[in-house]
Amino acid sequence: FEKHIVDGFPDTDHTKDEVTRKSIICGILMIGSAVITSYSRGQTVVATSSGEAELYGLSAIASEMMFVINMLSELGFTFKGHIYADSSSAKAMASRKGVGKVKHLEIRSLHVQDLVQRKCFVIHKIKGEENPADLGTKFLTWQKIFDLCNRINLYINYQNIQVAACAERKHRGL
Question: Tell me: the pLDDT tens digits for 5-18?
């Protein structure tokens, strides 16, 4: 609570679901070095571009962040929000007013523009390979999983993974 900042990391994998063509979104919220909430789920709408999908992901983390900041405010704490997005197009769409040239945006996602204008949070650019929200949207190597988990202070107990893998092989009769 020292810095009074809530950090948010959104990521989206455009049209990951091959049946519905909906994107997968992941969000991670942190206060200091502690993850306070995270999610990985399918988007409710079909995005027609990766930038649009990323804006929906940014909108989702903004809503989660505002819930946490408002809850903390009710408890007497004042927090600011910082969102670290790896999509330049989503950052640009969130920082302007209106749909611009992207005419097919869901209107409900534009609330993020109002929140940016009111300075409820700041959106920063992060390199895609440094975004811990990749954990919920992409297939990653063990090394990449390890590195991203370390970024959010999540430690993997490899012994439990080995025990689970052995149990699975035994169950399959291998």
Answer: 999 999 988 666 66
